[in-house]
């Protein structure tokens, strides 16, 4: 539901002298029905923008098609989008691409399990043989209680997963960190409720990262019952940070103890230092070309106090 607000800000305000032929600025890829939803919200809120967006719907057999022609059925801020049908395996391959210093970055997508239609996206560099480095690959999942259906697409795309972004909606917090939460909910109840609502725990996120042999794991979509550590509230920071660290610990433990279902890529005897990280606003993850730099760098971690005057601190203060 945040897409309409994002578009209103990114596409600018419509003025009487704005050109009739709007420049296409934003391309959106998502499930069937997204095009219709945005049209309805824009119409009900009387939204008009200076530039245009397009919705490209990822369709499966039986999905309704929301047409883009004739032009009058589109919103005035909408450009024609593509209807992309999945292949025989149920995946959407090569749906988009962009340029990088190493060539095109290619986007693939596939369905993941949730109570509503939801999609996981794979961004990877082009395959290059020796002596070029192994291509980097990023996997970003939507809401899900299981993403295992994406495994064939993961294994068929080049490179290992450099970064997995996986949701972690709820978690059991032990009594040594929060007595009240532990007293009200057992680990079994937390997992049961997560599955009922189509979401994941840190344990499930870590298991997914282990099964796919991901190099980095960032946890997002953390439930509102776990408020982020606040720089403005020092007294609550220690408690909130402890909860985030516990969520990270659970995911990390599952990650490092779950065997991969993909062909082995790590040389025998190589030691991996893998640590899951809870996402936070303005956090960045540095992913160097394989074999050219340190294994990972997380900037602006949740609960860490950035150095005064640093670039991340400046961005944080400008946006609060």
TrEMBL record:
Residues 287-320 are annotated as: Disordered. GO terms for molecular function: 3'-tRNA processing endoribonuclease activity. It comes from the Eukaryota. Residues 299-313 have a biased composition (Basic and acidic residues). GO terms for cellular component: nucleus. This is Metallo-beta-lactamase domain-containing protein.
């Amino acid at each position: 539901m945040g897409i309409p607000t994002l578009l209103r800000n990114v596409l600018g305000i419509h003025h009487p002298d704005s050109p009739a032929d709007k420049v296409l600025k934003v391309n959106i890829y998502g499930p069937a029905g997204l095009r219709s939803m945005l049209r309805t919200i824009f119409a009900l809120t009387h939204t008009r923008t200076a530039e245009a967006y397009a919705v490209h719907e990822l369709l499966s057999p039986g999905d309704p098609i929301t047409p883009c022609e004739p032009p009058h059925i589109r919103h005035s801020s909408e450009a024609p989008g593509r209807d992309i049908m999945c292949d025989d395996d149920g995946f959407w391959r090569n749906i988009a691409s962009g340029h990088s210093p190493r060539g095109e970055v290619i986007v693939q997508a596939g369905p993941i399990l949730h109570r509503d239609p939801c999609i996981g996206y794979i961004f990877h560099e082009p395959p290059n043989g020796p002596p070029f480095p192994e291509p980097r690959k990023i996997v970003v999942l939507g809401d899900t209680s299981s993403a295992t259906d994406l495994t064939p697409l993961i294994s068929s795309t080049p490179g290992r997963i450099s970064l997995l972004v996986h949701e972690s909606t709820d978690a059991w917090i032990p009594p040594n960190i929060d007595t009240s939460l532990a007293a009200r909910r057992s680990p079994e109840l937390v997992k049961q409720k997560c599955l009922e609502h189509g979401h994941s725990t840190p344990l499930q996120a870590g298991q997914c990262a282990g099964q796919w042999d991901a190099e980095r794991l960032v946890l997002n979509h953390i439930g509102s019952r776990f408020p982020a550590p606040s720089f403005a509230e020092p007294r609550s920071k220690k408690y909130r940070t402890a909860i985030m660290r516990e969520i990270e610990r659970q995911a990390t433990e599952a990650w490092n103890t779950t065997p991969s279902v993909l062909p082995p890529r790590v040389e025998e005897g190589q030691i991996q230092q893998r640590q899951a990280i809870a996402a936070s606003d303005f956090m960045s993850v540095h992913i160097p070309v394989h074999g050219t730099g340190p294994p990972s760098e997380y900037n602006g971690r949740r609960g860490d106090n950035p150095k005064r005057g640093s670039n991340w601190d400046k961005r944080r203060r400008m946006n609060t």
